[in-house]
């Protein structure tokens, strides 16, 4: 039996991979973020004795070639060769996939991108991430970083002069003006503060927008314009058939509709169907994607 894990900064979710290819979530525990030995004990406990292999979706960058994880919000895993050390500690095979890649794979194989050649799955939440799947194969790239469109100081906060008052925000990666710093939920909050001076959460901003509030509407217009401009470059580069979205902001379907319409108005190709849509696995892409990685890597379980 293979046990799949979705490991985030707050919780570890887990469940067994079933014969039909789905992962039945059986529970969650808090992530022991700063203690490696407690972390290993938690994985061993959740997997149980019958587990012969482990497949992990990890909320952080992971370089398969070096085995090193880059996950600042789980300090005990950061810069550690997690796969090798877990295999040594648990005595069974361990597979690790970045969580955005796991989501993109879930969408490409079993979700909104099923049967479609190019699927670019994106995360819009506390951060901005993504994963690229072409013809059912995850594109990993150098250092496992392919699909990570959130970083690089490329954002023009004025959107070509159309927007005023938005700063070049600093990003967690050490640069300024990253897509992550502007188009994440925190970015939306920063835009609102830049434009209106007040501090609201992204949830409060979107709720006020839905209620017709003028200030929130201005914020959402700026946010979706900046996000759509960034996405339009990726659409022209990758030619995706679908861009499924996960992360906290994906719960707001009206927000995604607005982003979708703006993106399709900016790109070269003619998309007659919605392109940016909520992912079928927006809630459990990590677990389902970890299951697909196990199915395809370890074999033995057919979908
Ligand atoms: Zn950055």
Automatic annotation (TrEMBL):
The highest taxon in the source lineage is: Bacteria
Q: Which InterPro entries match?
A: ATPase_NBD, ROK, ROK_cs
Query: Which residues belong to the signal peptide in this entry?
Result: none
What's the family?
Belongs to the ROK (NagC/XylR) family.
Query: Can you say what this protein is called?
Result: ROK family protein
């Amino acid at each position: 039996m293979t046990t799949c894990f979705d490991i985030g900064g707050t919780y570890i979710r887990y469940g067994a991979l079933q014969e039909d290819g789905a992962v039945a979530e059986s529970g969650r525990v808090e992530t022991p973020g700063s203690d490696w030995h407690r972390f290993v004990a938690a994985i061993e406990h959740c997997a149980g004795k019958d587990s012969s292999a482990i497949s992990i979706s990890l909320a952080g960058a992971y370089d398969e070639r070096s085995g090193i994880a880059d996950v600042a919000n789980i300090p005990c895993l950061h810069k550690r060769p997690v796969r090798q050390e877990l295999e040594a500690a648990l005595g069974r095979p361990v597979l690790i996939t970045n969580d955005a890649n796991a989501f993109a794979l879930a969408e490409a194989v079993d979700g909104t991108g099923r049967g479609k050649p190019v699927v670019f799955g994106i995360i819009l939440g506390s951060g901005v991430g993504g994963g690229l799947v072409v013809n059912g194969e995850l594109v990993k790239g150098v250092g496992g970083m392919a699909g990570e469109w959130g970083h690089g100081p490329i954002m023009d906060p004025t959107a070509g002069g159309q927007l005023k008052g938005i700063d070049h925000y600093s990003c967690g990666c050490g640069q300024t003006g990253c897509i992550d710093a502007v188009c994440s939920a925190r970015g939306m909050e920063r835009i609102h503060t830049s434009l209106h001076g007040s501090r609201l959460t992204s949830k409060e901003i979107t709720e006020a927008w839905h209620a017709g509030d003028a200030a929130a509407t201005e914020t959402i217009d700026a946010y979706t314009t900046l996000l759509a401009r960034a996405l339009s470059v990726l659409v022209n580069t990758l030619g995706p058939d679908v861009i499924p979205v996960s992360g906290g902001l994906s719960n707001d379907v009206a927000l995604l509709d607005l982003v979708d319409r703006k993106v399709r108005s900016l790109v070269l190709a003619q998309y007659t169907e919605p392109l940016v849509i909520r992912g079928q696995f927006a809630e459990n892409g990590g677990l389902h994607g970890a299951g697909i990685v196990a199915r395809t890597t370890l074999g033995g379980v057919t979908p």
